[in-house]
Each structure stands twice: as C-alpha cells, then as structure tokens.
Automatic annotation (TrEMBL):
It comes from the Bacteria. PANTHER family: BETA-XYLOSIDASE, BETA-XYLOSIDASE-RELATED. It comes from Actinoplanes lutulentus. InterPro entries: ConA-like_dom_sf, GH43_C2, Glyco_hydro_43, Glyco_hydro_beta-prop_sf, Glycosyl_Hydrlase_43. This is Beta-xylosidase. Belongs to the glycosyl hydrolase 43 family. Pfam families: GH43_C2 (PF17851), Glyco_hydro_43 (PF04616). Residues 306-407 form the Beta-xylosidase C-terminal Concanavalin A-like domain. The active site is at 12 (proton acceptor), 180 (proton donor). GO terms for molecular function: hydrolase activity, hydrolyzing O-glycosyl compounds. The keyword Nucleus does not apply. One of its GO terms (biological process) is carbohydrate metabolic process. The keyword Hydrolase applies.
Length: 521
C-alpha cells in the first residue's frame, strides 16, 4: 500500500465507500475552498474531484484565525445523498451538514444543527433511520474554551437542524488525553465506537469500543489502543484520527488515518504537516487488529505546470477568501493578476494563492511581473511562519528580497537582478522587447526543498530538509527546514506554497510544481 495516500497537508480523513468507489474528505482550517473530496477505485490512486465548500458563505471563515475554521469532517452516504458533517470553529456556523448527489459537487449551502457544542462530529443512522451526531465535547470558544467533556452523542433532526435530546456521554477511551474524532458504525451484531485519544501530537492513538446499539453502552476493546506510534521508532508518527472502510475486492478492512512523516535520527520534525495514511485491519473475536502504519511513498516524480488561464483545478487554495476573489484571470489574459495587500505574507488575509507541498523533495517555480508592484513566491505555514521571495521592478532590473520569518524573528537578503538575466526561453521571441529595461520587474522565482543524503546531515542538520530561495537563477538563501515544520510552527496545517502580492499589481504568467520522493528515515 502506498503511504501516505494523500501526501501534503491532509489531516482528519473521513472515508466512505459507495458503489465500489472510495471518497475521502479532509480538514482545511483557514483555507478556501474548503473540504477537498478525493476519489479512488483501489485506495492507492487518488484524484481530487472537487471541494465541498466552493462558496465562502458555506463556511463563514473570513475572520477565523489560522489553525481554526474547518476541523475534522465526517463523510457519509445515506438515502442516495452524500452527507458531510463538520463543526466550523472560529466562525458563526458551528455544526453544519452539507449534502450533494454528486460528491464532486455542487454541494448545498448546509443545514446548521443547533445544540452541539464540540468538535469532530460523526453522523450515523440507526436501523429505523434516526440520525445521531456523535462528537468530542471539546470547547473551542467562549468562557469554557479549552475544556473537555468526553465523547458525546445526540439524536438529531437533520431537516429542522436541531438536537432532539440532551447530549449523552459515551465511552471516552482508555484515559489518555483528548478523546476525539469519534466514528460510529455497525458490523455484525455490534455497534462500534472508534475514537482518537492522546492528542494529535506524538501521543496520538486510535481506540475502539463496542455495544449493542448505536447509543451504547459501549465497552472498550481488551487491547486498546489498536493503533499508535507513541514510543515506537517509526518514521510515521502521530498516527490517529481514523475512519474504517471495507477494503477493495473483499480484502481486509482499511483504516484511513492521519500521521506525519518525521525526518532524521531524532524524528522530531515533519515539514509537510499531518498527511493521510492507510493501514489494514483483521478481525478477531469481533475486535479489529491493525497492522502498523508504514511509510511507502509512491515512486517517481510529479511535474505539474499551470498556465493560469483558469483556477478550475480544485487544488488551489487561498486564505479566508476564495482563490477567484484573490486573483483575477481577466485583467491580463493568460496571466493571474494579484492586487497587493499591505504586509504581504505577514497579513492576516494576504493576497496569496497556493498549493500544498506534497513531496519532501520539491520545486515550486513562478514567473512574475512585478514592474507595477511588489510580490512573488512564498511558502506559508501561517502569518508568523513563512518564507518569501518578493520581487519589485526598479527600472533597470528587479530587486528581489528573500525573507525568512519564524515567529518574532525575521531575516532578509536582497539582490538586484539585471533585466538581461531573465532567461530568454521564458519569453516568446515575438514578445521580447527591444529595450531590456522594459523587462524590469520580470523574474523567475523558485522555492526548492531537498533532503540531505543519508548520513550527511550531521547533528545540526539532523531531521532537517533544506529550503533554497532562488531568484533569476541566484540562490538568495538556503535555510534549515526544521523552522518551517508543523512542530516548530505548532500548526494543524502544513506547507502551502504559492504566489502573493504586497503592493500594487503583480501578474503571474507561469506556475509549476515538481515533486519527487527520496528515501529517508
Ligand atoms: C481535530 C481534532 C484534533 O479536529 O485536531 O487534536 C483537530 N485533535 O481531532 C484539527 O485537526
């Protein structure tokens, strides 16, 4: 099995099997569009077919802080419709159920379900068709923020959008911290309650209980947790937050779950954040036994080139706004036009459109024209942790500033690139202007990540990838990627790299991603 099955920032997976086809939804936090839907016929090859939240009003996350917003959906199919339930944190909507006939979309505007206070909702139906929401009673806002009330459940009216009873406490794990991510399902004579516990960091684990009905009472398995990497010398850590599905061709059942790929001997840093993995389970005496989660990335390279005549590809992301409202495709045909937001990548809602870094060895390339403004290419964790290459036309060439921002620390390197250095190959011959200064402001920018050859990292490089910031072929900075990892940024997301504008108008004529897996441990 190839693992991760969804590389790059894709935490909190929920999976459903409908007519022999698998679909997964994952969390997107402050990014839009929200809630990507992936499709597979074999659990190996996955394709993103759309997003649930393509209209910002569906989520209301304009003001959601980084790391808040869309947390942990559950994707199910019932009565001929796909249902996705999610609790949107840091926004007005709370618990929302979206439905669609086709998981590629369009999805409806969603029905809010009143009376549910927590995170990680699951949606399940009993044999009589009654709907139940099971969730983690973790409070994220208001005076009780930060308090935990275990796994809870309510019967709901999905049409009226309300809970029909007071929350009922259910089995909440083995005593590890943060019982969350519940999923309820029936198998044979039992109803099962699958949960995560131990927290989404190194203590993360998956535990299970079973009982006679959807409401329980549930009692825990004799050998919980059924999955954890805590304390194991494994290159995938933090495994947890699982959902269960039947395997292809009548094979073993499969757990999809989140995990992080950690680098180096200390295995302390994961550049890409929480990704989606899978592992198989076998059943003994009515209890599942899971095989350890392994890292087995797909071999080979991926090269993607975007001509920027459309933003139809569902993998584009913007922050708190839709990519279409951040970038214009009509102002300069064939190019993406961005209007600067003061502060650039430090802004709460920067003018930024990007894509997930999915491979540990990667190159993002953008050709920008900053003759009428300032902007360029950036790798973002959030407004406090990012790297950027900001270009600005100066009449004779392009001034490029590379900036590394790491919480309150910031360092910049600036260089001037003469217009003549622009690789001629990027400009169709007919468009090469006679006077070189007219090229001022145009430059190819690149952010490369790579892993040191095994055994060459040394103690100071242990666990690091290297990040190179390159403008017009000149490397302005080479940085230790540990500072832009999910552990250092204390982030629920991962690296998203893309184009931005901080002043005036910046156009982008080309954007490319190249990714390749390298052996690591
Ligand atoms: C998710 C929850 C979690 O809702 O992280 O720490 C949240 N645990 O299960 C965001 O991914």
């Amino acid at each position: 099995m190839i693992n991760p099955i969804l590389p790059g920032f894709h935490p909190d997976p929920s999976v459903v099997l409908v007519d022999g086809v698998y679909y997964i939804a994952t969390s997107t936090f402050e990014y839009l569009p929200g809630l990507p839907i992936f499709r597979s016929h074999d659990l190996v090859t996955w394709e993103q077919i759309g997003n649930v939240a393509t209209r910002p009003e569906q989520l209301g996350i304009e003001q959601a802080a980084s790391g808040m917003g869309v947390w942990a959906p559950t994707l199910r199919h019932h009565d001929g419709r796909f249902h996705l339930i999610v609790i949107v944190t840091g926004g007005p909507r709370g618990c929302v159920v979206f439905t669609a006939e086709d998981p590629a979309g369009p999805w409806d505007d969603g029905t809010e379900i009143a009376g549910i206070e927590g995170i990680d909702p699951d949606l399940a139906w009993d044999d009589d068709g009654n709907a139940y929401v099971t969730y983690s009673g973790f409070i994220t806002s208001g005076p009780a923020a930060g308090t935990h009330h275990g796994i809870q459940q309510v019967r709901v009216d999905l049409t009226a959008g309300k809970a029909l009873e007071e929350p009922r406490p259910l089995w909440s794990g083995t005593g590890r911290q943060f019982p969350e991510a519940p999923h309820v399902f029936r198998r044979g004579e039992f109803w099962y309650l699958l949960i995560a516990e131990g927290g989404t960091e190194r203590g993360h684990a998956v535990s299970i209980a079973r009982g006679p009905s959807i409401t329980g009472p549930f009692s825990g398995a004799p050998a919980n947790p059924i999955v954890t990497a805590a304390g194991y010398d494994s290159p995938v850590q933090c495994v947890g937050h699982a959902d269960l599905v039947a395997g292809p061709d009548g094979g073993d059942d499969v757990l999809v779950l989140l995990g992080v790929r950690v680098l180096g001997r200390t295995k302390a840093f994961s550049p890409l954040g929480r990704e989606t993995f899978a592992t198989t389970v076998t059943w003994h005496d009515g209890w599942p036994q899971a095989r350890p989660v392994r890292v087995l990335p797909s071999a080979g390279a991926v090269s993607e080139s975007f001509d920027l005549t459309s933003l139809d590809d569902p993998g584009w992301l913007a922050i708190g706004r839709s990519p279409e409202s951040v970038g214009s495709l009509t102002e300069a045909p064939g190019r993406l036009t961005l209007h600067g937001v003061t502060g650039g990548m430090r802004a709460f809602r920067p003018a930024f459109i990007g894509r997930r870094q999915r491979h540990l060895t990667s190159t993002f390339t953008a050709t920008v024209d900053a003759s009428r403004g300032a902007g360029g290419l950036a790798c973002r964790y959030d407004e406090h942790f990012h790297l950027s290459l900001e270009a600005r036309g100066d009449g004779h060439g392009t001034t490029v500033t590379a900036t590394a921002k790491l919480a309150d620390l910031e360092q910049s390197w600036t260089t001037q690139i003469p217009a003549a250095h622009l690789p001629a190959a990027q400009i169709p011959a007919a468009q090469i202007p006679a006077a070189r200064p007219e090229l001022a402001g145009q430059v190819e920018l690149r952010i490369e990540t790579s892993l040191p050859a095994p055994g060459t990292g040394g103690p100071e490089g242990d666990g690091a990838d290297r990040i190179r910031l390159i403008a017009g072929g000149i490397c302005l900075a080479e940085l230790d990627g540990r500072y832009w990892s999910s552990e250092t940024a204390a982030s629920f997301t991962g690296r998203v790299t893309g184009v931005f504008a901080s002043e005036g108008t910046v156009t982008v004529s080309h954007f490319a991603y190249h990714g390749q897996e390298t052996p690591f441990c």
